[in-house]
Design a protein that fits this description.
The chain has 48 helices and two strands. The protein is mainly α. A two-stranded antiparallel ribbon has the order 1-2. Helix 28 packs antiparallel against helix 29, helix 41 packs antiparallel against helix 42 and helix 45 runs antiparallel to helix 46. The chain is flat and about 125 Å long. The two termini are about 60 Å apart.
């Protein structure tokens, strides 16, 4: 830390400290700088140091320290106002407003003192000739705080009616305050209307739109505009996260989490700012924070997580229930202090209302990783008396109803029957048969013996057809466990028995079709094994209705036999529906099997058609949950065929029909597939919605780190495409916490860092953007194809340059240039050299190195153009013309800087400076000539260079030549249309140049 020896050094130190992060370290440095200023014995130095101290205190958690330096400043003003320059005079009056608000925020300062200060402010502003707008705004704040609504409304009206002058708050801050009052009065729509210019970027300042984004969250939720609220949370939290002084806005984001089912994210926010629990320098924002902590802890306790450990004040561990009690007591005591000072209950009333809020949305997915705490198990007390016997008949009736209609809950319903009658007492053989049959289905490969038991019980119950069906189901399970030949022999025999029994009217079509379907399934299993289809686990999912094997494109033996078996099923059920959903389901499954066989034989179009028919049959039968897997198959086939519209339609149907029934992980996959299709169809807005849903359901499924990370990666990309950079950055940072090359592929990690770098660059966070791009480039450096590596290195160099890290940027551009050379990409090699030239001109190397690099760029481009193929010549010529022009601009700028350095001693006629301008003109003339070779394609480039050359001619004292170039540009656009913005701009520039050249010529003639 260098010693402060003069006023300039002090000012540099003050400026440097202003750029530091908010917090105690910056405040402490401001105190040191005041001590250094006092040693200089310059009143203005002390004034500036005091003003700096005031500013850093105001934008920190130590706002209560503002009053001492302000009192000293005011005393100095009253004693020697001439010591203040114009800026410090303005600043002194400006911070009067900070003092008014600062006093109001400190409950130990009496209200009478606040009112007295308000009068002092009004008096001094009037004497200084300032508008009363800022005074009435301050009065409004006092009245609103103490709950004097009538006075607040009067002051509000007077505030808006008064003229805006230099003492009025900026537009952004004024609109924030006005909108906050409207929201407090229950006029949420009006509040959002007032905030719109701030939210849309029309007005901004150091703390806006930060505050407005936070303030808008609850009104948006109350109005049901949840998507906007989600976006404002992600965008706004990113802005306030690192700003110590914004505890009140931070509290709004915690409140948002508590009101939208994002309690886990709320805990993450509390953990990021432990000092917010205890910092006492700004009591009002601490009160806001404690109130929303209480709200969040109450919510967790209500959900059954009162015993969960949560972040809280340092020094001990906290449970949610304990922190709720602590925060409520602290908030209540602090609110009472304000109310005693104010003589009203307004502050306490607002705090109690805030704590008592109920969730406005059950769960609002945010896109970032947050896992909702699972509800705690509910302990049901034992009844005092002997429990009543379960209503077994009701359980049986419900189970039969569910299984007869193929409802997904049927297996659990039969399990409930089994639990109610564990010894079989009170059950008929038919009942016991159905229990065993469904338990066997639930157990899968472990249920073989149960199928035999069920068959025996069906036979005992007098239903030989159902007995055959149970044994056939067992045979299919045997095929899944690696015994397809044995299974086929068994099921074929059973099928023959069933047909004979059916012919003798000894069983019905339902039982016969069940045996026929089991035989078809066994044969389909053999087909899949032959051509490398799904394994036993996947086939079992098909058996239970949860999934099916993927269609394959190879042919193999057994296809014809399987198709005959499937068509026999169709023949059996055809015309026998009569409202029997089981038969309809058999028909639908048979159509799906034919679709699989079509896929096996390579007929994708026929396969898709059959899968659609299967899905349609299921839906018509009232079994939409079975349609889902085949709609997914249709989507996959359409996607493979390049039919994105078809894929989209099938996936939408899958979500419509199956989403309520599919497990969370399956639901996540469906949304993600649809998101990717929509992204491919250039619909990033709706793609983002489905990616958001995918991330939500992946989190619900416990797949946050795998499927959830991929969904967030895709969501970030879609948000980036929509220009929602802050939201995209939050989502991508969350995704990168889980993305890894081993699980997701290094290409995914590189893409996520690339996208994040783009977002950060758009947000002006250039150093962070460079870091992401360099990390991505380091991963891509080992890829066989080096295009991405080169591009990322180039982008990283741009970010480093924008961050002011010239040396690092030069190294990155050099690395990129080597890669571009290896790839044979001359245009980007030339751009990297030009960028390095500009960096050299601005940095230590200086003009000589800059000229050398630009010369290399010219030579690279000229050499490539000399041997280029016809297809590449236009691009290279455009690049060469651009390089000549940039060389000219670089020479002209270095000449201008040299002219400024020599002006006091040698004047502007220094030969070296003149020579530099001549060299610049030569390069610009070359640019004009190259662009002229491109004809109409290079017209705008040529005229732009021509005008730049004309300005150089004028600088060299040649107005006639400058005028000639201007006339040439006007002639080039003679007869051009008026709708082209570039044409209009060029004409205007040419006219201005022509007028200036003529004036210059007249002045020379007068001197002459």
């Amino acid at each position: 830390m260098s010693e402060i020896t003069d006023f300039d050094a002090l000012r540099r130190a003050l400026a440097e400290n202003s750029e530091q992060p908010e917090g105690p370290a910056r405040n402490a440095r401001a105190e040191q700088l005041l001590a250094e200023a006092e040693k200089l014995d310059i009143p203005l130095a002390v004034i500036e140091a005091l003003g700096h101290q005031l500013k850093v205190y105001n934008y920190s958690s130590e706002k209560d320290k503002m009053f001492v330096p302000f009192a000293r400043l005011l005393r100095m003003w009253d004693e020697r106002p001439e010591d203040f320059d114009a800026y410090e005079t303005h600043s002194l009056y400006w911070v009067f407003k900070w003092m008014s608000a600062g006093m109001l925020d400190q409950p130990h300062i009496p209200l009478a003192s606040v009112e007295k200060w308000l009068g002092e402010m009004e008096h001094r502003y009037r004497l200084a000739g300032h508008s009363e707008r800022a005074v009435r705004s301050a009065e409004f704040s006092v009245a609103a705080h103490i709950g004097d609504v009538a006075r607040a409304e009067r002051a509000y009206a007077a505030w808006l009616a008064a003229d805006r002058d230099r003492m009025a708050d900026c537009h952004a801050c004024e609109l924030r305050g006005q909108g906050a009052w409207q929201a407090r009065c229950g006029r949420d729509a009006e509040a959002l209307r007032l905030w719109r210019p701030v939210l849309e970027g029309e007005f901004a300042c150091a703390h806006e739109p930060h505050n407005v984004l936070a303030s808008s969250l609850a009104p948006l939720l109350r109005l049901g505009r949840v998507e906007e609220a989600r976006a404002h949370h992600l965008r706004g939290f990113r802005l306030v996260r690192s700003m110590e002084s914004m505890r009140g806005a931070y509290a709004d984001h915690v409140e948002f989490c508590a009101l939208t089912g994002n309690e886990a994210r709320g805990l993450e926010l509390l953990a990021e700012r432990p000092a917010y629990f205890t910092d006492t320098g700004h009591p009002r924002s601490r009160l806001d924070f404690l109130a929303v902590v209480t709200l969040l802890m109450d919510r967790l306790t209500e959900l059954g997580h009162g015993g969960q450990r949560v972040p809280g004040p340092a020094g001990r561990t906290w449970t949610a229930r304990e922190l709720a009690a602590h925060a409520r007591a602290e908030a209540t005591e602090l609110a009472e202090r304000f109310d005693r000072r104010n003589g009203t209950s307004a502050v306490g009333d607002r705090v109690r209302a805030r704590i008592a809020q109920r969730p406005l949305v059950d769960r609002l997915p945010l896109g970032v990783r947050t896992v909702r705490p699972a509800p705690a198990p509910v302990v049901t007390p034992l009844p005092p008396a002997t429990p009543a016997e379960p209503d077994l008949s009701a359980l049986l009736a419900a189970a039969r109803r569910l299984s007869d209609t193929l409802r997904p809950q049927a297996l659990e319903a039969w399990a409930a029957v089994a639990r109610a009658a564990p010894d079989g007492a009170g059950l008929t053989p038919r009942d016991r048969a159905e229990i065993a049959d469904h338990e066997a289905m639930a157990r899968g490969p472990e249920g073989l013996e149960l199928f035999e038991r069920a068959a025996a019980l069906y036979a005992e119950a007098g239903d030989p057809g159902e007995a055959l069906a149970a044994r056939a189901r067992g045979a299919y399970i045997r095929a899944l466990t690696g015994e397809p030949d044995t299974a086929l022999t068994t099921v074929t025999s059973l099928y023959d028995e069933a047909l004979a029994l059916y012919a003798d009217e000894g069983t019905g079509v339902r039982q016969t079709a069940s045996v026929a379907m089991s035989r078809a399934r066994v044969l389909m299993r053999r087909v899949h094994e032959t051509v490398g289809g799904g394994g036993a686990g996947q086939e079992f999912e098909e058996f239970t209705g949860a999934g099916s094997g993927e269609a394959v494109s190879e042919t193999g033996p057994g296809v014809a036999e399987a198709e005959v078996a499937v068509r026999e099923v169709l023949a059996l059920v055809g015309g026998h529906g009569g409202g029997d959903v089981r038969l309809a389901a058999r028909g639908a499954e048979a159509w799906a099997m034919l679709g699989e066989l079509a896929g096996v034989t390579g007929d994708a179009g026929r396969a898709a058609e059959l899968f659609r028919r299967a899905a349609g049959t299921y839906v018509a039968a009232g079994l939409p949950w079975f349609a889902l897997e085949y709609q997914v198959q249709v989507a996959a086939l359409a996607h493979q065929a390049g039919d994105l519209a078809g894929a989209e339609g099938a996936l939408r149907a899958a979500l419509e029909h199956g989403a309520p029934y599919v497990e969370p992980v399956g639901r996540a996959q469906l949304h993600l597939q649809l998101a990717e299709v929509l992204g491919g169809r250039d619909a990033p807005g709706e793609a983002a919605e489905h990616a958001l849903e995918a991330a939500h359901w992946a989190d619900e499924a416990g797949e946050s780190g795998t499927l959830g990370a991929w969904a967030r990666h895709r969501l970030g990309g879609y948000l980036l495409r929509r220009g929602r950079y802050a939201e995209a950055a939050e989502v991508l940072e969350s995704a990168l916490a889980d993305l890894c090359a081993d699980t997701h592929g290094d290409g995914t990690v590189v893409q996520a860092r690339w996208w994040l770098g783009d977002c950060l660059g758009e947000l002006g966070e250039h150093r962070a953007a460079a870091e992401q791009r360099l990390k991505a480039a380091d991963l891509a450096r080992h890829w066989p194809e080096q295009q991405d590596h080169a591009t990322l290195a180039h982008l990283a160099a741009e970010s480093l340059g924008n961050a002011g890290l010239a040396a690092e940027a030069d190294r990155a551009y050099a690395r990129a240039g080597e890669l571009w050379r290896a790839l044979g990409n001359t245009p980007f090699l030339v751009r990297s050299l030009r960028a390095r030239a500009w960096l050299a001109l601005d940095g230590e190397p200086g003009a000589a190195d800059a000229h050398a690099l630009m010369t290399r760029a010219v030579r690279e481009c000229e050499s490539a153009l000399a041997v280029a193929q016809e297809a590449d010549r236009e691009e290279l010529a455009t690049e060469l013309g651009g390089t000549y022009r940039q060389f000219a601009e670089l020479l002209a700028r270095s000449a201008s800087e040299a002219s400024e350095e020599t002006e006091e001693t040698e004047g502007t006629e220094d030969p070296a400076v003149q020579a530099a301008f001549e060299a610049a003109l030569e390069q610009m003339t070359r640019a004009v000539a190259v662009f002229a070779t491109l004809g109409a394609a290079g017209l705008h480039h040529r005229t732009g260079a021509e005008l730049a050359a004309g300005r150089l001619e004028a600088d060299l004292g040649r107005p006639a030549r400058a005028a000639a170039r201007a006339r040439g540009v006007l002639a080039a656009y003679e007869g051009a249309g008026e709708g082209d913005g570039t044409v209009l701009a060029r004409r205007e520039e040419a006219a201005c140049l022509l007028e200036a050249a003529q004036e210059q010529a007249e002045e020379e003639a007068e001197r002459g």
